[in-house]
Amino acid sequence: MKQSMYTVTSNRPLARDVYGMKLAGDTSAITAPGQFVNIRLDGLFLRRPLSVCDWEADSLTLIYKVVGQGTARLSAMMPGEVLDLLTGLGNGYDMSVSGQAPLLLGGGVGVPPLYGLCRRLVAEGKRPIAVLGFNSREDVFYAEEFAALGVPVTVTTADGSEGVPGFVTDALPEAGDYTHFYTCGPEPMLRAVYRATVTDGQFSFEERMGCGFGACMGCSCHTVTGNKRICKEGPVLRKGEILWQK
Amino acid sequence: MAEMKPQTAGRDTSVTLSGLTLDNPVIPASGTFGYGYEFAELYDINCLGSFSFKGTTKEPRFGNPTPRIADCTAGMINSVGLQNPGLDRVIREELPRLRTCFHKPVIANVCGFSFEEYAEVAAALDKEEQVGLLEINVSCPNVHGGGMGFGICPDTAAEVTRRVKAVTRKPVYIKLSPNVTDIVSIARACEAAGADGISMINTLLGMRIDLRTRKPTVANRMGGFSGPAILPVALRMVYQVYEAVHIPIIGMGGVSSARDVMEMMLAGATAVEVGAANLVNPYAARDIVEELPAVMAQYGIQSLQKIIGGAHHG
Ligand SMILES: Cc1cc2nc3c(=O)[nH]c(=O)nc-3n(C[C@H](O)[C@H](O)[C@H](O)COP(=O)(O)OP(=O)(O)OC[C@H]3O[C@@H](n4cnc5c(N)ncnc54)[C@H](O)[C@@H]3O)c2cc1C
Ligand SMILES: Cc1cc2nc3c(=O)[nH]c(=O)nc-3n(C[C@H](O)[C@H](O)[C@H](O)COP(=O)(O)O)c2cc1C
Ligand code: FES
Questions:
Q1: Which of helix, strand or coil describes residue B310?
Q2: Residues A64, A36: contact at Cβ < 8 Å?
């Protein structure tokens, strides 16, 4: 983990209520795709967590949906403004077990961390397959960016206005066509993915956070291997350790 | 024109709690600093006066369902529910690991759901070499007393104090809940029962409601409110208790700067804990330690120990 200051270099709408922000600054603490940052915002007490979509040696990209005060404030930021971030939070995805044809299943603003993962898998010579789920065509983002990595991309929309009608689980490749899966999205989607997939895989979870770095016990969950902090031993859990609550 | 630099050298920040001398009065508060490891990755936590580790119960506890956290104006609500690995694992795993990153006496925060549990946990932690002081959190519900908090009436708070004092040798500080009608009478009862000091305040019971779901934001509906917003309440209570007891006070509630530390000490605190501030700025406690000499110089203070209770004199 590292705390430092980042300068906004761009901040633009990508889809309905969804923005992409690029920041310049020290990314040395980021060690794996699927990790997140925790952002301090003027006037708000707690930081707000966002997944790292992608990063380079001195810049990072975040994609966020405006759902409340913090994300609304973020969306109003202009290039040149400065943000205080904690970076390198959480475990991130384990790429070493991907196999040759990993499946990436993203839902809504769960799509961003899969992009950084996808780019790194491609760089390692893997052949990922992406299935990206949204509510409606106005919500779709980053399908072209995945395609530009040379990856087969299927878009699904719940209302059928673009791509395959339905959910990501309605557009899964045949069993045997993927070697492992990586997923991030709303919890109902994660549950559906858990049931519909035939290989081992990794799930990125969300929980309301106090600190984001393991100090407050605000984000705990039960797993097969004991209690874990989503911010520290997560947000990524292996399929075999998940214990669904309720 | 050259800026006037106040003289910071030679300022004495040390304070003494019941015979335990700290290099400075800054102590991260229980539940906001874990066992120190996460912070030790960022800075040498030996710069702190001490720290109070997460509240320990006899059995391991998962705590309350999530969400457990809500953001507030100048503060936060938590309903963690005393998640901790339980007494045995704290002694076998956490304390040995804590020793590798913190070399000063540490404060053991003790919780219980019965008088017997308080005594058992306190007795065991009292024997741990690195524990310098016991902080007994009486905000827990009494499972044999209809779930009423031990800390909400003078008799039960005094009884916890007596039971713990009977089985321990290290200084025992009773950590009071502010969610009471008369905190002064509870502090007095603890003093009369043999407490070596008072630690105050714990979080204020509060809640938030999510406009989207129209439900309480935390799953437990209510939780403990803390952070900068509660500083005035905490100061007032420390001030009142200082007038009523003759034992030292560890003051806390909303402290997030060296100036807040000095206000707490002027109200009557001998040392000061920093809670929620650590969660938003992981360097908060270290920053306060570093700011202290300059703020002392600014107000012409040579020795922090000498300002304790200063707001009461004259
Ligand atoms: C590890 C992690 C990674 C995340 N990555 C992303 C990301 O890449 N992109 C993105 O858009 N969002 C992401 N989120 C969710 C994001 O943190 C929340 O949407 C954000 O904190 C809301 O802040 P706010 O101040 O705008 O909303 P608030 O004012 O706090 O809340 C407004 C509304 O949003 C809802 N809300 C608040 N927090 C969350 C949450 N954590 N999850 C779901 N709903 C919430 C509340 O129910 C409320 O109704 C992530 C969350 C976590 C824990
Ligand atoms: C996330 C969190 C967990 C806490 N856990 C404990 C605990 O285990 N035992 C305890 O005595 N107090 C606990 N507290 C209370 C703090 O130690 C402190 O008394 C209170 O938060 C007021 O200080 P602050 O305003 O600086 O946060 C907790 C507070 C927070 C925010
Ligand atoms: S958010 Fe504080 S421990 Fe995870």
A1: helix
A2: no
Domains of chain B, each with CATH number or no CATH: 15-312 (3.20.20.70)
Question: What ligand 1 atom has the least distance to the C-alpha of A70?
Answer: 25
Given CA atoms B15, B20, B24, B28 in this order, what sign does their dihedral have?
A: negative
CA atoms within 13 A on the CB side of B92: 5
Rounded Cα distance between B194 and B216, Å, is: 40
CB neighbourhood size of A175 (10 A): 9
- From B25-34, B79-88, B136-145, the region with the lowest mean pLDDT: B136-145
Do A215 and B32 lie within an 8 Å CB cutoff?
yes
Q: Find residue A36's DSSP bridge partners.
A: A51, A89
Residue pLDDT, tens place only, A26-46: 999 999 999 999 999 999 999
Model confidence, pTM:
0.96
Ligand whose nearest atom lies closest to the CA of A214: 3
The encoded tokens of residue B113 equal: 């759901």
Residue of chain B minimizing CA distance to A230: B66
- Say how far apart CA B23 and CA B199 lie, in whole Å: 19
Question: From the candidates B111, B140, B153, B190, which is the catalytic residue?
Answer: B140
Ordered structural domains, chain A, with CATH: 2-89 (2.40.30.10), 95-200 (3.40.50.80)
Q: Which is nearest to B124 in space by CA: B73, B84, B164?
A: B164
Asked if B29 reaches chain A (Cβ–Cβ under 8 Å), the answer is: no
| Tokens at A41, concatenated | 């915002």
Count residue pairs from A and B with Cβ separation < 8 A: 91
Q: What is the C-alpha to C-alpha distance for residues B79 and B33, in angstroms, rounded to an integer?
A: 16
